[in-house]
Each structure stands twice: as C-alpha cells, then as structure tokens.
Amino acid sequence: MFASIFAILMFIAAGYSIGSVRIIKEGNAALVERLGRYRGTLEPGLNFIVPVLDSVVLEDSLREQTLDIPPQRAITKDNVDLEVDAIIYWRIYNLERTYYAVEDVEFAMQELVITTLRSEVGKTDFQELFSSRETINRALLDILDEATAPWGLKVNRVEIQKLDPPQNVLDAMQKERAASYEKNAKISEAQADVESMRLLSQALESTGNGREVLQYLLAQRYVAANQKIGESVNSKVLFMDPKSLTEGLVDLINEGDSSSK
C-alpha cells in the first residue's frame, strides 16, 4: 500500500513538473495569466509556471513582420481618383500592451494605415504625387509609429508600392508629355536655324565675294528641293527661275547693306 501511495505521489510530481515547464523559442515571447490576471511575460528559453493556476494565453513573435495593404481608392488634392497600396514593416516590442490594449492588432493597423494613407494622398496634387512619394512615406511612418506606440508596436518602415490613376488620366499625361517634347524640339530647331543664319551672315561679311557664295548656297537649296519634290508620290511639276530668285534675294541683301551705311 505504501508503494502504491508513493507511486501516485511520484506520478503527480512528474505531471506537475512537466506541466510547469514552458519552452519559448528564440525571437518569441509569451504571456502568462494566473487565475485570469496577467502575471508576467516569458522570455526565450526554459520557463516554469504553476500548473492549474497559471496558463499561457499567448505566444507571439517579436521579430519584424510585414503588413501588405491591398489597393485602396484615394483622391488627391486636385480631385484625381486613383488606387494606392502600401507595405508596412513593423514589430512587437511590448507583447503585454499588444495583447491587452487592442483586440485584433493587424486589423487595427490595417485600418489605421488605410485612413492615414488616404489623408496624406488628399493633401497632395496629382502632378506632385509621384515626386513626393518619399515625403509621404516619411509622413506615414511618423504618424503610424506614434499612433501604434500605445499598442506596444514599432513601425520601422512604410513603402508606397504603386499609384495607379485611371486610364483617361494616363492618356492625358502621355499627350501632355508628347506635346512638351514636340515644343522643345521646335524650340531647339528654331535656335539652330538662328545660329546657322548668324554664322552665314558672318561668313558673308568676312568674304569679298558674298554675292557668289549666296548664289551657290541658293542653288544647292534649289536642287535639293526639286529632288525631294521628285521623290514624292504626289509630286507636282514646279517651274521656277533660280536666277531670278537668286538675284532677288541678293538685291534684297544689298539694299539692307546700303541702308545700314
């Protein structure tokens, strides 16, 4: 009988010892409650609790995690409707606060990010939105980090992944960009023509046979123009007296020279 009682006691002691041991993985932490009230936080490694009285209510990671926010509709300051999404890098630094201060931490964070993201986009004009992405990221980081501190969270980084305006806005942007390129090209071409005319004027002034040089250049242009007309599918025959044209232009230049004296 004594042996039976001893065996029972040993069984109870073994069960007590096994039930009191909790091993927490590296990078994690666990919360312990005693009779429904918070008693402490278990660190990584071997820990002991009181069976029956104590219970581990939560074990979670303290490592950095990501929260991917799905595309959300937002409106810029100048009323452009677009879709924007973001990714948040965060971690738990106080598991007690995270568990007891908010019911569903990831859902709460997601709603906070969406609200803040729409607010920041609404402060910026559409044309400035793409160049201001880093500024918006920093603003989001500051706001979210401060707002989630009471939850025992630390927001390390916020990245806006994409900004997708409607197709009609993209088409308008492309047309505006093409018009800008065409305008710059015409300006460059006009500047080149002005420079060519300046150099030609200097060359004519520096030589004693300006009339002959001008006749030669006009003859070159005349031949090149006739060649292009001939190569055209819808070409037409054009009769023009190059001598008359040349003499007229030379007389015009001579008149300008005589009037300036």
Protein described:
One of its GO terms (molecular function) is peptidase activity. Belongs to the band 7/mec-2 family. The strands form three sheets. The chain has a three-stranded antiparallel beta sheet with strand order 3-2-5, with helices on one face. It has eight helices and eight strands; from the N terminus they run αβββββββααααβααα. α3 runs antiparallel to α5. It is rod-shaped, with a radius of gyration of 41 Å. It folds into four domains: 2-61, no CATH class; 65-165, 2-Layer Sandwich (Tetrahydropterin Synthase, Chain A); 173-206; 209-261. The model has no long low-confidence stretch (mean pLDDT 75). The longest helix is centred in the last third of the chain and has 40 residues, at 167-206. Helices cover 55% and strands 25% of the residues. By secondary structure, the chain is α+β, with helices and mostly antiparallel strands. It has helices at 2-20, 95-101, 105-121, 126-129, 133-148, 167-206, 210-231, 242-260; strands at 21-24, 28-34, 37-42, 45-48, 54-61, 65-75, 81-92, 153-164.
Topology, pairings included?
Elements: H1 2-20, E1 21-24, E2 28-34, E3 37-42, E4 45-48, E5 54-61, E6 65-75, E7 81-92, H2 95-101, H3 105-121, H4 126-129, H5 133-148, E8 153-164, H6 167-206, H7 210-231, H8 242-260
Antiparallel strand pairs: 1-4, 2-3, 2-5, 6-7, 7-8
Helix pairs in contact: 3-5, 6-7, 7-8
Mean pLDDT: 75
Number of strands: 8
Q: What is the H/E string?
A: HEEEEEEEHHHHEHHH
CATH topology title of the largest domain: Tetrahydropterin Synthase, Chain A
Q: Give the end-to-end Cα distance, rounded to a whole number of Å.
A: 142 Å
Keywords: Hydrolase, Membrane, Protease
Subcellular location: Membrane
InterPro entries: Band-7_stomatin-like, Band_7, Band_7/SPFH_dom_sf, Band_7/stomatin-like_CS, Stomatin_HflK_fam
Protein name: Membrane protease subunit
